[in-house]
Amino acid sequence: MLIQVFITVGISQALVLALLLCLKKGRKTADLILAMELTVMFIISILYNYRNEIREVVAVLPLHAYVLGYLGALLFYLYVKAVVQGELQWRWKRDSLHLLPFGIAMLLLSIYYYPLSRVEQLAQYDMVSSSQAPLWFELIYYGLFLGVFPYYLYQTYLLLQKHEHYILTKFSYKEDIGLEWLNRFFWIELITWGAFMIFEVLGQHWLVLLGDWGLQLGFIFMMLGIMYLGVYGLREHPVFVQQQEEPAITANPAAGLAEEKANDYLDQLLSYMLREKPFLAPKISIAELSHRTGIPVNHLSKIINEQLGLNFFDFINSYRVEEFKRLVSEAKHEHFTLLGLAFEAGFNSKSTFNAIFKKFTQQTPSEYIRNLQTLPIAGSSLS
What we know:
Layout: H1 2-11, H2 13-23, H3 29-49, H4 51-57, H5 64-85, H6 92-95, H7 100-112, H8 118-129, H9 135-170, H10 180-206, H11 214-235, H12 259-276, H13 286-293, H14 297-307, H15 312-328, H16 338-344, H17 350-361, H18 365-372
Helix pairs in contact: 1-3, 1-11, 2-3, 3-5, 3-11, 5-7, 5-9, 7-9, 9-10, 10-11, 12-14, 15-17
């Protein structure tokens, strides 16, 4: 009972967050999908954790926790897709196939469970609870934990990787457009599925080690995930506030780039970088740099990737690192902190500065300063 209460209190945050999302000014499709996902997670948790109490009132309801799991996995994937794409473009002929597993699970319930009398439903439920489930329920059970969950987790992972690649090739910054928080939430979802697999499928359904509370451990991980989403989302991430969209980049169709022309473009680019220092603009994108240099965006991307062996993000930030090192070496900047100098060099994030600086120098900024012995250690708060 104590675990039930603990999970209920934690999972109730899902309804509060869902309400905030629905009331959000200027809400988008992604907000509504996330609200539905949180609501489904709450209903699943209640149906399972209070299954014995619910079955005494409505015997048909508790098994819907497993069926709704099909929607929960799908909604998380659709939410990530909507965030990555800006808006979700649902095409019924193609995308309605996503609803097929849920439809099959509901059909199995409709055929083999709904028509039964209350006494027969209770008997079937007891069989399920004693790990002697009928075949139709085994199909729902394993279809969820071994089919739908891992499939949509994998598809979500691919979406996040694609978005990360897009940012690294188009932008010089990640703030406001990066999805690091969603990457972390994805890992929480992955751990939750792993907990269900270990504590429920393996520990209870196969080896029968954990008794009736095996699946509750999985719900504890789910609850912690919702708590993370609530605290992080409300405090930091613009899921719950209006987001400023980046203008879309429209590139001309890629055309062949002769080696001589590529070398000319490269010389033109490198000369411009040293002369005009466009990297000092904290939010410069490849589209803007293309406009400034007059180099077509597709060719600009090609020479950065192929001739310099860098993506756009690393290309711009490598110049910022060198600018920071130049600023550090000048005595007139001795009163600056490391973060102040990083901002002067074009960075607009402490975490990005630290990560990029160490990537290119194999040192933290503070270690670099100590080696130079030019700035006071008091300014080394970024290490």
